[in-house]
């Protein structure tokens, strides 16, 4: 390239970058004045222009740029990321992380343009400018961006023209333009680059370990606009428009939708009460001719002209006397559509209905009363905090879940137990919520929770076995929740004492009850209770010893209440780990996941989920990293102990392979050399020399760079027989015309003879050859 | 293109006899003799940088006699004129015409002793002769012999009253050598051989017949240089141009000379092709005469150059 044209190409390239830089700055925030954006871009362009003015022009443009060019590019690239915290702290604006990265790319492009004396930098600068311009054009439809796009096209045309001209003139630079820059002939590899890479990897690892993979995943998920920033971590993150966590994964189109765009559909299908009947069977119908006495007020009697008042309120009371699941039901009717999906650790218990009182006469669990006071407080970032919780020291690390609704049948907000705070974006005021039951939140004024919302929850976790006796309230703490009908108490109190009487109060007693139920009783979801039995729970405990989960839960509730633990019964959805979908990384919850379980109240007011039903588990405590590592190591040790023979063999094989890797690889290459000879004897000899050279490198006796093969082999001629013969052969193979004969009967034999003795182990015994000096005389 | 077996045998014999003659003339300097022969066969010119009395004239005389050519010696002094070397025209009163009297440059082997003592004007007179094997006197061009070979000497110690050879002229020499003092045994043998013999009576045998040297030189040009070796040469030349202690790298003409000398070295080794060993073997005398080095550069620059370029296999 002629010097004048080369200079012109460099200047036009810089102009392309300058235009692209302004366009990107405008596109980054097209709501502010254009001049403001231009001024911001001009600062960086000015810095790059000053650098370009002071940058030497290399005499050999096609060579790799020296290491300090990399440092300059890195410094300019990282500058926006370094400045951003200051902008956010001292200014009132900030860029989301993806825009910071684009700004870093813009600066990298400007740095490349400043160093465009090197052909590699010139090319990178052009590519970067094109990407930036396309990015700006895609990001905004601001009129200024169109003007810049046109300008860029025009300047790009000039650039193409100049480059074409320069290709016609193959002289790059004349001496008066050249600046001598010493560039080593061998490949430059900046140690600092490796160091920086290692530091970045270490810092990333530390960050991942410190924050936890889940937090890092959430944070990274907000990087790109298309993955749906939520503003949860970074308040400057942009909201997503594509496939981010705001979208609900569902089985059909109705189950998928975005929070901000989806119409909140209300319908009267698939109410919870229908699902309960479908799951557990219809209650036994009362006898047709049964007299019932209803205590009605005089006013009601008068107003209704002597007729009984109609109960307008949908009953959610649960009848424990049921017919059992209807036979011959088609599987399709059981597999309901996914109600919601859970992202996070499972199993989980999502409450829907809470029962606290049992009517022995009607054999019904009566729905708990609605709390009268709201205990929600708004926090930053749209979070709702449960304000009534007391502090306690028995909790482990908090756990985080995302629950994505699809086809909820109630207005309840599905949340796990031990909830401390939750968040539904835009629904950020306490008055938007109401307490349906204690610990069960609902959307106020709505019949159904709309599909497509994402509920982020943070709940406490605990390890029940580590709970002290003080964590449980004393008997009589809450008589309402320790009430057991006398007919039942008389029967099961001895049973409770028999099972748990010998255990200390607290979790050991509860665990003993649960253990008995889980081991001595059988889960049979299809079985019904006899219609004529006065108490289905007693029938389950004393006679059948098998039954559906509501009987397990009811029995556990009564047993625990008998022992003086405030206990309640919950109906809800069990989020089973077995339903986890690896593809979506979510666990779908269907109507068939309805489940009953008891909950024991702790001293701090929280409800501890206990699971008496075999096959169902509770969420384990979230362990800190150290415990998880120890647990993993223990499991690993146990596994190793179980497979000691196989492990020993495999480890031994691996160790031997690692130890003798060079010999093995050499053996493989040697056999390849023998079995698959090259087409010509010359190439076969050269391959043999390469084998020898590889051995020498492994033995840390490499042939010095400037040393000829002949001199190298001659160094070992007194040690290995055949070095001289091979040296002569190599000379003929490598440097003689192809029609020159090898000069020996069998080149293969000469090579093989030396290959057999010129081994890795033998080479290590001798000193390396000296650097080349003047060759010996003929 | 490759010498036939008979030709090779003849050439080998001739070269062996040449070696014998030269080694007998100058004892204990077999390696220097090899370089001299390589320079002669490559049709180059030789610059000997050495102290007086080390056998430069003896070497030149023996070489001139052995190759069957004529020998001329010029003692370069400041008052030496170009015409003293090239020759000049005189008016013959009998024939009434100008006659050209040939100078020493028309000999087959010319010894220009202490060439750096003569003026640049006279030195430059040698330029045309060395490069183009011709001289122009009074606008008349006179061809030199095909086997014209210049051995120039200069004293490395005395610099007063000298005119250092310009780079352009240095590049005309194929190599620079230093004979050096002989070993003790060689000097004893030399003394013994001189007993009973006057130096001017010393005779050297004629080895080559007229035209045979030219044939040998022609054979050298046919020695094969494969592309990988040519690439190696070019890489080395590039390395000389990039080395920080080299102010004047190898010119393309110098690169051609290096290849020719390497061919001659391969010929002396009785090989029909050049190897990187040949290139390295002649690197020091070839590069030593033409590389411009910074004042603080040591003699290790050429070794560094050789160590920096990978040898092709």
Which features characterize this protein?
heterodimer, A: 778 residues, alpha+beta, C8orf32 fold, seven-stranded antiparallel β-sheet, six-stranded antiparallel β-sheet, 44% helix, flat, B: 313 residues, alpha/beta, Rossmann fold, Helicase, Ruva Protein, domain 3, five-stranded parallel β-sheet, two-stranded antiparallel sheet, 13 helices
Task: Characterise this structure.
The complex is a heterodimer of chains A (778) and B (313). Chain A has 778 residues and is an alpha+beta fold. In chain A, 44% of the residues lie in helices and 11% in strands. Chain A has helices at residues 3-28, 34-54, 67-90, 97-114, 119-139, 143-168, 191-211, 213-221, 272-280, 298-303, 331-334, 486-500, 507-520, 536-544, 549-562, 625-642, 644-659, 661-675, 681-698, 709-715, 723-735, 747-757, 760-763; strands spanning 318-319, 338-343, 348-359, 364-367, 376-378, 383-386, 399-405, 419-424, 433-437, 440-443, 454-459, 522-523, 546-547, 567-575, 587-590, 594-601, 607-609. In chain A, a hairpin with a 2-residue loop joins strand 9 (433-437) and strand 10 (440-443). In chain A, helix 1 (3-28) runs parallel beside helix 5 and helix 7 (191-211) packs across helix 8. Residues 171-188, 240-269, 292-301, 308-315 and 330-336 of chain A have low confidence and may be disordered. With 313 residues, chain B is α/β, with parallel strands linked by helices. Chain B has two domains: 5-213, P-loop containing nucleotide triphosphate hydrolases (Rossmann fold); 223-313, Magnesium chelatase subunit I, C-Terminal domain (Helicase, Ruva Protein, domain 3, Orthogonal Bundle), CATH 1.10.8. Chain B has helices at residues 5-25, 30-41, 56-66, 82-86, 120-132, 167-170, 184-194, 212-221, 227-242, 252-268, 276-281, 283-288, 301-308; strands spanning 46-49, 71-75, 87-92, 97-102, 109-113, 134-137, 140-143, 149-154, 175-177, 246-248, 292-293. In chain B, the strands form four sheets. Chain B has a five-stranded parallel sheet. A two-stranded antiparallel ribbon of chain B has the order 3-4. In chain B, helix 1 packs across helix 2 (30-41) and helix 2 crosses helix 10. The two termini of chain B are 24 Å apart. At the A-B interface, helix 19, helix 20 and helix 21 of A face helix 2, helix 9, helix 11 and helix 13 of B.
């Amino acid at each position: 390239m002629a010097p004048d044209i080369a200079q012109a190409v460099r200047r036009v390239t810089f102009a392309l970058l300058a235009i692209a830089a302004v366009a990107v700055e405008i596109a980054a925030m097209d709501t502010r004045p254009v001049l403001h954006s231009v001024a911001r871009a001009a600062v960086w362009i000015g810095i790059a222009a000053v650098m370009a003015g002071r940058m030497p022009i290399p005499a050999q443009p096609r060579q790799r740029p020296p290491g300090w060019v990399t440092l300059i590019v890195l410094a300019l690239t990282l500058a926006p990321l370094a400045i951003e915290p200051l902008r956010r702290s001292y200014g009132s604006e900030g860029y989301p992380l993806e825009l910071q990265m684009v700004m870093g790319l813009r600066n990298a492009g400007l740095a490349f343009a400043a160093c465009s004396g090197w052909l590699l930098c010139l090319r990178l600068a052009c590519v970067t400018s094109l990407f930036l311009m396309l990015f700006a054009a895609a990001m905004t439809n601001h009129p200024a961006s169109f003007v810049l796009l046109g300008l860029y096209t025009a300047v790009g045309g000039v650039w193409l023209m100049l480059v074409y001209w320069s290709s016609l003139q193959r002289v790059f630079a004349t001496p008066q333009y050249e600046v001598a820059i010493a560039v080593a002939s061998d490949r430059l590899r900046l140690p600092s680059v490796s160091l920086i890479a290692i530091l970045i990897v270490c810092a990333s690892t530390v960050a991942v370990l410190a924050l936890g993979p889940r937090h890092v995943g959430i944070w990274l998920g907000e990087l790109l606009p298309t993955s749906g920033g939520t503003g949860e971590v970074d308040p400057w993150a942009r909201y997503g428009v594509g496939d981010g966590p705001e979208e609900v994964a569902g089985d059909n189109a109705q189950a998928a939708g975005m929070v901000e765009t989806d119409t909140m559909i209300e319908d009267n299908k698939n109410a919870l009460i229908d699902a309960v009947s479908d799951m557990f069977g219809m209650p036994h119908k009362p006898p047709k001719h049964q007299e019932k006495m209803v205590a009605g007020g005089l006013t009601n009697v008068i107003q209704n002209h002597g007729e009984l008042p109609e109960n307008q309120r949908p009953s959610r009371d649960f009848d424990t006397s049921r017919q059992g699941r209807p036979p011959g039901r088609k599987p399709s009717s059981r597999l309901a559509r996914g109600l919601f999906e859970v992202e996070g650790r499972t199993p989980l218990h999502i409450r829907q209905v809470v029962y606290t009182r049992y009517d022995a006469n009607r054999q019904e669990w009566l729905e708990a009363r609605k709390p009268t006071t709201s205990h929600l407080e708004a926090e930053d970032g749209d979070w709702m905090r449960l304000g009534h919780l007391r502090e306690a020291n028995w909790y482990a690390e908090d756990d985080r879940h995302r629950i994505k609704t699809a086809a909820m049948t109630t207005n309840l907000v599905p949340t796990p137990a031990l909830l401390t705070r939750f968040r539904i974006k835009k629904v950020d005021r306490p008055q938007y919520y109401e307490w349906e039951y204690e610990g069960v939140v609902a959307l106020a004024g709505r019949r159904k929770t709309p599909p497509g919302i994402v509920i982020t929850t943070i709940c406490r976790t605990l390890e029940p076995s580590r709970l002290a006796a003080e964590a449980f309230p004393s008997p009589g703490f809450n008589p309402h929740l320790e009430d057991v009908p006398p007919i039942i108490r008389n029967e099961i109190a001895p049973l409770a004492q028999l099972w748990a009487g010998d255990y200390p109060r607290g979790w050991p007693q509860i665990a003993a009850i649960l253990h008995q139920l889980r081991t001595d009783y059988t889960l049979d979801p299809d079985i019904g209770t006899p219609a004529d039995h006065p108490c289905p729970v007693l029938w389950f405990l004393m006679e059948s010893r098998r039954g559906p989960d509501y009987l397990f839960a009811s029995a556990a509730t009564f047993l625990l209440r008998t022992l003086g633990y405030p206990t309640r019964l919950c109906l809800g959805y069990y989020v089973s780990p077995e339903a986890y979908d690896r593809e979506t990384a979510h666990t779908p919850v269907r109507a068939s996941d309805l489940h009953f379980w008891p909950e024991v109240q702790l001293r701090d007011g929280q409800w501890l989920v206990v699971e008496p039903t075999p096959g169902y588990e509770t969420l384990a405590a979230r362990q800190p990293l150290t415990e998880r590592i120890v647990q993993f190591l223990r499991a690993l040790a146990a596994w190793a102990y179980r497979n000691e023979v196989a492990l020993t063999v495999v480890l031994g094989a691996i160790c031997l392979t690692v130890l003798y890797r060079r010999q093995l690889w050499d053996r493989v290459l040697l056999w390849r050399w023998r079995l698959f000879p090259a087409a010509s004897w010359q190439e076969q000899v050269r391959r043999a020399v390469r084998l020898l050279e590889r051995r020498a490198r492994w033995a840390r006796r490499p042939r010095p760079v400037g040393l000829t093969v002949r001199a190298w082999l001659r160094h070992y001629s007194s040690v290995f027989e055949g070095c001289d013969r091979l040296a002569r052969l190599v000379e003929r193979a490598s440097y003689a015309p192809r029609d020159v004969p090898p000069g020996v009967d069998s080149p293969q034999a000469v090579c093989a003879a030396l290959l057999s003795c010129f081994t890795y182990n033998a080479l290590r015994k001798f000193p390396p050859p000296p650097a080349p000096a003047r060759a010996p005389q003929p | 293109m490759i010498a036939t077996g008979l030709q090779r045998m003849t050439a080998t014999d001739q070269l062996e006899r040449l070696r014998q003659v030269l080694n007998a003339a100058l004892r204990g300097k077999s390696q220097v003799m090899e370089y001299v022969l390589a320079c002669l066969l490559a049709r180059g010119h030789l610059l000997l940088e050495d102290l007086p009395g080390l056998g430069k004239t003896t070497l030149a005389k023996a070489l001139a006699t052995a190759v069957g050519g004529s020998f001329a010696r010029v003692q370069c002094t400041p008052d030496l004129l170009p015409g003293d070397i090239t020759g000049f025209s005189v008016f013959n009163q009998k024939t009434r015409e100008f006659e050209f009297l040939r100078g020493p440059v028309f000999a087959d082997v010319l010894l220009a002793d202490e060439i750096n003592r003569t003026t640049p004007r006279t030195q430059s007179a040698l330029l045309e002769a060395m490069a183009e094997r011709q001289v122009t006197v009074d606008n008349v061009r006179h061809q030199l012999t095909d086997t014209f070979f210049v051995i120039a000497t200069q004293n490395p110690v005395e610099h007063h009253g000298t005119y250092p050879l310009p780079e352009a002229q240095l590049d005309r020499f194929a190599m620079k050598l230093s004979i050096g003092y002989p070993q003790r045994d060689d000097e004893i043998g030399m003394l013994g051989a001189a007993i009973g013999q006057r130096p001017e009576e010393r005779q050297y045998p004629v080895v080559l017949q007229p035209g045979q040297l030219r044939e040998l030189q022609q054979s050298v040009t046919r020695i094969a240089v494969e592309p990988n070796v040519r690439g190696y040469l070019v890489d080395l030349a590039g390395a000389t141009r990039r080395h920080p202690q080299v102010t004047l790298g190898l010119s393309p003409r110098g690169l051609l000379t290096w290849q020719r000398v390497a061919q001659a070295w391969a010929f002396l080794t009785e090989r029909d092709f050049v190897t990187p060993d040949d290139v390295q073997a002649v690197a020091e005398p070839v590069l030593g005469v033409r590389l411009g080095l910074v004042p603080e550069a040591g003699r290790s620059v050429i070794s560094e150059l050789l160590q920096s370029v990978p040898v092709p296999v």
